């Protein structure tokens, strides 16, 4: 029997593991963590202030990161290997376009399509060979090189990941640099083994950046969502429904029950 603390990428291929109940039916805590990581990734993208951008979400899963992108006013395309997870995203009526795809096969987009890319907890899957034909270095290079081409000049890609060891981190950064990216590593909460999260930020500019792992001190708490509706509250739901109406989508009528929290069933 496998240990309960075993890394998920070691237990089965991503299209199998990602559809477990743990990943599909997230608790409010898991949703909050995913939203915070997405917020941090967008912060590192350094997008133009107040300007809607066209972004790529690699390993989008059920669309939790995409929800944050939509709330920020951005348009996005999500790619994931799991059709089951994308079905969950469709059921949740996310606002981005969804594509089934293995990131190790490359990104099938025209050059300069996107203003930026984020990826939450997906990149480390490419470091494992789930089939005999899989070569992690080749799959990483194929991913990074095609992603590099699909990004507009000067844009950034931010990957939140959990590297297993320094060798794995070196493998990832080496293939990213080989594909043309420059950038470095940022570690949030480096003194906490539980909250420690790594992010690899890369740029598609021609500026020379030393191939070094850069560590930050403990980062401040995520900025308050001032002026924004509480997520999943009535105002947030009404705003989301209004956006969909403007897009010409079919939306249920608003009632006194809209946004009302249901009692848990035991």
Automatic annotation (TrEMBL):
Residues 232-241, 248-257 have a biased composition (Basic and acidic residues). It comes from the Eukaryota. Residues 56-129 form the Methyltransferase type domain. It catalyses: a guanosine in 18S rRNA + S-adenosyl-L-methionine = an N(7)-methylguanosine in 18S rRNA + S-adenosyl-L-homocysteine. One of its GO terms (cellular component) is nucleolus. Residues 193-263 form the 18S rRNA (guanine(1575)-N(7))-methyltransferase Bud23 C-terminal domain. GO terms for molecular function: rRNA (guanine) methyltransferase activity. Keywords: Cytoplasm, Methyltransferase, Nucleus, S-adenosyl-L-methionine, Transferase. The keyword Cytoplasm applies. Residues 193-266 are annotated as: Disordered. It is found in: Cytoplasm; Nucleus. GO terms for biological process: rRNA (guanine-N7)-methylation. Pfam families: Methyltransf_11, WBS_methylT. S-adenosyl-L-methionine-dependent methyltransferase that specifically methylates the N(7) position of a guanine in 18S rRNA. Requires the methyltransferase adapter protein TRM112 for full rRNA methyltransferase activity. Involved in the pre-rRNA processing steps leading to small-subunit rRNA production independently of its RNA-modifying catalytic activity. Important for biogenesis end export of the 40S ribosomal subunit independent on its methyltransferase activity. Locus-specific steroid receptor coactivator. Belongs to the class I-like SAM-binding methyltransferase superfamily. BUD23/WBSCR22 family. Heterodimer with TRMT112; this heterodimerization is necessary for the metabolic stability and activity of the catalytic subunit BUD23. Interacts with GRIP1. This is 18S rRNA (guanine-N(7))-methyltransferase. It comes from Salarias fasciatus (Jewelled blenny).
């Amino acid at each position: 029997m496998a240990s309960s603390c075993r890394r998920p990428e070691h237990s089965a291929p991503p299209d199998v593991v990602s559809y477990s109940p743990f990943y599909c039916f997230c608790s409010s805590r898991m949703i909050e963590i995913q939203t915070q990581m997405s917020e941090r990734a967008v912060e590192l993208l350094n997008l133009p202030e107040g300007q809607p951008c066209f972004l790529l979400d690699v390993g989008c899963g059920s669309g939790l990161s995409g929800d944050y992108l939509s709330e920020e006013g951005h348009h996005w395309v999500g790619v994931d290997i799991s059709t089951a997870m994308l079905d969950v995203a469709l059921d949740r009526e996310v606002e981005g376009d969804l594509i089934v795809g293995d990131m190790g096969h490359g990104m099938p987009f025209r050059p300069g399509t996107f203003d930026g890319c984020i990826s939450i907890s997906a990149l480390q899957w490419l470091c494992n060979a789930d089939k005999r034909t899989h070569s992690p270095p080749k799959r990483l290079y194929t991913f990074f090189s095609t992603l590099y081409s699909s990004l507009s000049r000067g844009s950034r890609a931010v990957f939140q990941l959990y590297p297993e060891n320094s060798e794995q981190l070196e493998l990832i950064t080496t293939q990213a640099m080989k594909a043309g990216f420059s950038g470095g590593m940022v570690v949030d909460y480096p003194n906490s083994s539980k909250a420690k999260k790594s992010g690899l930020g890369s740029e598609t500019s021609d500026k020379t950046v030393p191939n070094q792992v850069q560590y930050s001190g403990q980062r401040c708490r995520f900025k308050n969502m001032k002026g924004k509706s509480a997520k999943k509250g009535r105002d947030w739901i009404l705003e989301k429904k209004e956006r969909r109406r403007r897009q010409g989508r079919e939306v249920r009528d608003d009632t006194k029950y809209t946004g009302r929290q249901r009692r848990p069933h035991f």
